Amino acid sequence: MLRHDQHCGRFLDSGGSRYHQRPPGAAGGGTLQGVPFLLWTNPLTPYTDSISTRPMIAATITTAQQQYLDAFAALYEAADALNAGDPMSYARSREIHLACLLGHTVADTYSGADAYEADGTPVEYKSTIGSTISATYNGISVQPTWEEQESYLIDHKIGCYARHYFARYDGAAVAEVWVMDADTVLSLLLPKAQRQYATKRNGKAKDPRIGVTISAGEIRKHARRLV
Known about the structure:
Layout: E1 4-5, E2 10-11, E3 26-32, E4 35-40, H1 63-81, H2 92-102, E5 105-106, E6 115-116, E7 122-128, E8 135-140, H3 146-157, E9 163-170, E10 173-181, H4 182-201, E11 210-214, H5 216-222, E12 224-225
Parallel strand pairs: 7-9
Antiparallel strand pairs: 1-2, 3-4, 5-6, 6-7, 8-11, 9-10, 10-12
Helix pairs in contact: 3-4
């Protein structure tokens, strides 16, 4: 089975010795030791039906490398079955993992809610691989006035998700998971965002977007631990 992401030109799986579809510039592909591969020419070159006989892949691989390749392919197969999109996009793989752990349904788009609870309530996920739990909200667009900024944060960016789940990963294992309601999240983040607003709005910061974090202490004080 083959699924091609029309937006980014990636192939997520293969269906045998030949790929059934190719993006522009793909010369051919297949599988080697069960691992799908794709051969590329110049992306600007129009597609032709020729298949290269010299796969650009290592002739010999270690057991650990083979295990990783198998797991990588299996991850995409599972994500495809869940209609979860590309598991390697940003922290998408952890979102899928966390949704499975919590019994949620992972969102099928990359914008908006990260997942949905059993009753369809949209929720937000934040994960870290740091030594302590924290939740960072980066890349927040700056609005023309603070009043508009506050409304944007409440109605469209943060407050629209009833619950926010914070997870800390230790390798493949979840070390801890916390949940906090949207009102509490807003009470912690709005003052921090407001302190940044003037500088960001006036273009005096290297990064023009707002970025705020809920600390480990704030999470432990105001959130409920699930794991």
